[in-house]
Design brief:
CATH superfamily of the largest domain: Aldolase class I
Number of strands: 9
Distance between the termini: 44 Å
CATH architecture of the largest domain: Alpha-Beta Barrel
Shape: globular
Structural class: alpha/beta
Number of helices: 17
Strand order of the largest sheet: 1-2-4-5-6-7-8-9
Largest sheet: 8 strands, parallel, barrel
CATH class of the largest domain: Alpha Beta
């Protein structure tokens, strides 16, 4: 199951991969694994669970990404996540932000493989679904091949069989989270060598993959690939994922079909008191590279944020791309 599940996934991204984003992505791919934004274990235990964890059945397969370093709290949060129906529980050992470090979780945990192993043990003791880890290839000066191997071996011994590896190290001091996604050099070869050293594990490549062709090239020989910003900013690429990675029939939907299918979802969200921009902020890149795309983005960006904005804004945004398509035909 794990090998199939992780062939292609969309990365967990703070402020981006919320339930509306995931529902939208599902219209283009039924098989890719999607992830929540990172949610701290403490927030799940003490916060508004339905708000934090709620999702629609159409979003399966879906993984919950947790942040934390307290094994007991993570075990409890994982159990709650499984009760909500998530297909996988993932532990974030890759985020380098100062706020995350202050909470002693994220990438700084790569310096404490025994603690990560204890967290995995506690989580696995409470759930039947897979517990996975998303990490970097290293942090600061602790970034040798041996350091990564020690981390993976230690955590794998606790029963983690799947590692999603961002092929950059993280600088915990001196670089912003954005810079940590761009400045440290990519080292895909190290992830491949990790797979060669541990062929028994599921190793998924993440980091800097901008196109599906690049993902197929660099992911060859690994168990899967994970795309983040590229999948979010140019989401139409997801329309061919099921065919390319999972052998499914070609997706017959057009970009216009996707928007039409999304309208009932938007209307239901508005009827519950939600704001239009909650949903449509995720679709701005749908027509990327197509005639009329700039006007589509402009209308949604300027109008959807206004109080009381309704479905008529979506219809108005679609007109420029519809007209351009009619001219091209």
């Amino acid at each position: 199951m794990s090998l199939q599940l992780h062939k292609f996934s969309v990365a967990p991204m703070m402020d981006w991969t919320d339930r509306h984003c995931r529902f939208f992505h599902r219209m283009m791919t039924r098989h890719a694994l999607v992830y929540t934004e990172m949610v701290t274990a403490e927030a799940i235990i003490r916060g508004k669970r339905d708000l934090l964890l709620g999702f629609t059945p159409q979003e399966h397969p879906i993984a919950l990404q947790l942040g934390g370093s307290n094994p007991a709290l993570l075990g409890e949060a994982a159990a709650i996540g499984e009760q909500y129906g998530y297909d996988e529980i993932n532990l974030n050992v890759g985020c380098p932000s100062d706020r995350v470090q202050e909470g002693r979780f994220g990438a700084c945990l790569m310096a404490e493989p025994a603690l990560v192993a204890a967290c995995v043990t506690a989580m696995r003791a409470r759930v039947a679904v897979p517990v996975t880890v998303k990490c970097r290839i290293g942090i600061d000066d602790q970034d040798s091949e041996g350091d990564l191997q020690t981390f993976v071996d230690t955590v794998a011994a606790a029963g983690c069989a799947t590692f999603i590896v961002h092929a950059r190290k993280a600088w915990l001091k001196g670089l912003s989270p954005k810079e940590n996604r761009e400045v440290p050099p990519l080292d895909y070869a190290r992830v491949h060598r990790l797979k060669q050293a541990r062929p028994d594990l599921t190793i998924v490549l993440n980091g800097g993959l901008a196109t599906l062709e690049q993902a197929m090239t660099h992911g060859d020989g690994l168990d899967g690939v994970m795309l983040g910003r590229a999948a979010y900013q140019t989401p139409w690429m997801l329309a061919t994922v099921d065919q390319r990675w999972f052998g499914a029939a070609p997706n017959a939907m057009t970009r216009h079909d996707v928007m039409e299918a999304l309208i009932p979802y938007i209307e239901a969200h508005l009827a519950r008191g939600g704001r239009l921009n909650n949903v449509v902020r995720h679709v701005l890149g749908l027509f990327h590279g197509e005639p009329g795309a700039r006007a589509f983005r402009r209308v949604l960006s300027e109008e959807a944020v206004k109080s009381g904005a309704g479905i008529e804004v979506v219809r108005r945004a679609l007109e420029p791309v519809r007209q351009a398509a009619a001219v091209a035909a």
